[in-house]
Amino acid sequence: MSSEVVRPAAKARKAHGERKRRSILEAAVDIASAEGLEGLTIGRLASEMGMSKSGLFAHFGSKEDLQLATVEEARNVFIREVIRPAFLAEQGLARLWKLCDIWLVYVRGGVFRGGCFFAAAAAEFDSRPGPVRDRIAEIMKEWLATLRRAVVEAQEAGQLDRKVDPTQLAFEFNALELGANWAFQLYGDRKAFARARDAILERLCRHATKSGATSLPVQKGKPK
C-alpha cells in the first residue's frame, strides 16, 4: 500500500480520536462542575458517554490524568467564554469592566452545569496537595493576574486613580464574583449577580478619572 493512501487514513483516525477526546472532556467538565472532580471517575464518565471503561482508558490512563485533562478543558472554555471576548474591548478601564461583567454573565448563563468550575474545584482541592490542586491554583492565579494587569493598564491610560492598589482591587473583584456564584449555587439567588455587578461598578466609578468614567456604563441612580 502506498504512503499516499496510508497518510490520509492515519490523519482521519487521528482527527476522529481528537474529536472523541474533546467530546469526552466536554462531558467530564459538565459532570465535575456539578459533582466535583473526585466524583469524576472512569466508570462514571463511561456510563455518561455510553462507552466501555477500556475505551476511556485509551484516552486517559488514570483518574488523575482525567482530572488534569478536565481542568485544562475547563480553562479552555473559560478563555473562550470570558478572556477572548473581554480582550476585544479597548485596553484600559473598558477592558477591566468587561472582564468583570462578562465573568458574571458567563456564570449566570450556565456555561457549566455547576456554576463556576474553578470556584468549585478550588474549594474541593484547596487542602489536598498534589498536581491537580497545583494546576487549579495556577489557573486561579492567572485570572487574578489578568484582573490586576487590567487595573494597571487603566491606571497607565490615565483612566483610574494611580493611588489604587491593583492587587487589592483585583482581590475585591474576584471576591465579589465568587460570592455571587456561591449565593446562586447555594440559594438559587440570581439577584446576587446584579449585586456583585453594582458593587464592582461602584468601585470603578469611585476610582475612575474624568476621562475613564466615559468608558463605564451609567451607575444606578447616578448620571455618567
Structure, briefly:
The chain is mainly alpha-helical and 224 residues long. Helix content is 73%, strand content 0%. The chain has ten helices and no strands.
Describe this structure in words.
The structure is a single chain. The chain has 224 residues and is an all-alpha fold. The protein has one domain: Tetracycline Repressor, domain 2 (Orthogonal Bundle), CATH 1.10.357. Helix content is 73%, strand content 0%. The protein contains 10 helices and no strands. It has helices at 3-35, 42-49, 53-57, 63-86, 93-108, 117-125, 131-156, 166-187, 191-207, 210-213. α4 (63-86) runs parallel beside α7 (131-156). It starts with a helix and ends in an 11-residue tail after the last helix. The mean pLDDT is 88.
What is the CA-atom radius of gyration, in angstroms? 21 Å
- Write the H/E string, N to C: HHHHHHHHHH
The share of residues in extended strands comes to under 5%
CATH fold-level name: Tetracycline Repressor, domain 2
Topology of helices and strands:
Blueprint: H1 3-35, H2 42-49, H3 53-57, H4 63-86, H5 93-108, H6 117-125, H7 131-156, H8 166-187, H9 191-207, H10 210-213
Give the key terms.
elongated, 10 helices, mainly alpha, 224 residues, Tetracycline Repressor, domain 2, 0% strand
